[in-house]
Design brief:
The protein is an alpha+beta fold and 355 residues long. The protein is built from 11 helices and 7 strands.
Length: 355
């Protein structure tokens, strides 16, 4: 250890005081016992002084290290000087900080474990429902219902429907897993959102016709160009429009609208159905979350559609927004980077030239 001048001076003072104390005691004519007592007192005093010197030296070294660390990190006190505190206070503060970080990690692990348990319970239930339904129909046929042609045909159709639902669930799970693990990469290109929406309408035409629901795009026919992965945004629109149909009453309509801003396009899917209570809006993008589980299961669906929407939009550096009120319907919206068409660019150029 390198001792600074002040520490060396204290050590010399301790030594000199010890020698001086013994010499004075000797010249004062003390007996042997008194001499030992004086020596012990001076020796203890010297030890105290030495300990104080070492502590001072150690503290100064620690403070220098702290000063260097604070300067490197740029931390300052209220006066704009490097923030130096008592070294032991700093150690205690670091220990508390470490304990807080450790507790946060423990809490995060507990949340992950709770999520894992909930997910396993949810997926087990979702898989069990179509499997048990198909199993019931098949066993009924095997137990003798095969002889009745009408019953056989009806039960086979129901079993097939249950298995189709199971296939959709597995496909949705696979898609969600691939997006989360990065196996599915977003392939960005120029996409016409207007035409993409019309294509989705055609795919869902049978579903909307069963409930006599009208699907329409607000505004004139035009190109609405955005920069996105067309296949994945088609998946987003399919899930949002399908969800809007599911939660609308017969004879209503589902509207899609586009708001073109300077650098972005906002897409909105609006229904006028049952709406979502405020307390549920923050959770509807979670896997298998259902506002009303009994009614939702009757309407079908895997409970993964909105979770897939959220993850796809995350991959586009966007996020879904929701406005809803019970009994008044819901509007789901998201934003994508805009790509201007030549006509739009010419129009803006002419407008600026006139100004």
């Amino acid at each position: 250890m390198v001792i600074n001048p002040r520490g060396l001076a204290l050590l010399l003072a301790a030594g000199i005081s010890a020698v001086t104390g013994i010499a004075l005691a000797f010249f004062e004519g003390l007996d042997f016992t008194g001499l030992l007592t004086a020596a012990a007192i001076t020796f203890i005093s010297a030890l105290v002084l030495i300990a104080a010197a070492l502590e001072l030296t150690f503290s100064r070294k620690v403070r220098k290290l702290q000063l260097l660390a604070r300067r490197l990190s740029g931390e300052q006190d209220d006066n704009g000087q490097p923030d130096i505190r008592d070294p032991f206070d700093s150690i205690a503060r670091d220990m508390r900080s470490f304990a807080d970080r450790a507790q946060k990690e423990i809490d995060d692990l507990k949340k992950v474990e709770a999520f894992r348990k909930d997910f396993i319970a949810d997926i087990s239930h979702e898989l069990k429902t179509p499997i048990f339904a198909a199993q019931g129909y098949v066993h009924t046929l095997l137990d003798g219902a095969m002889k009745d042609k009408a019953v056989r045909s009806r039960f086979l159709r129901k079993a097939a429907k249950s298995l189709d639902g199971l296939d959709i669930l597995v496909q949705d799970l696979l898609t969600l897993s691939q997006i989360e693990t990065g196996q599915i990469k977003m392939r960005m290109a120029e996409v016409d959102l207007y035409q993409l929406t019309r294509d989705v309408f055609e795919q869902l035409e049978g579903k909307s016709a069963k409930k006599e629901i009208t699907l329409r795009i607000e505004g004139p026919i035009r190109k609405v160009m955005a920069y996105a992965d067309g296949q994945r945004i088609s998946q987003v629109m399919t899930n949002l429009i399908s969800n809007a149909i599911k939660h609308s009453s017969e004879g209503q309509q589902v509207e899609v609208s586009f708001t073109e801003k300077k650098k972005s396009v906002v897409t909105r899917v609006t229904d006028f159905g049952e709406g979502i209570p405020k307390e549920h809006i923050g959770r509807i993008f979670e896997r298998f979350y259902r506002v009303d589980k009994s009614r939702s299961r009757e309407k079908g669906g895997t409970g993964l559609g909105l979770a897939i929407v959220k993850h796809i939009l995350d991959g586009h550096h966007s996020r879904p927004e929701v406005e809803s009120a019970p009994g008044k319907g819901s509007t789901f919206s998201f934003k994508l980077p805009r790509v201007k068409t030549e006509k739009q660019e010419d129009g803006e150029h002419n407008k600026s030239a006139k100004n």
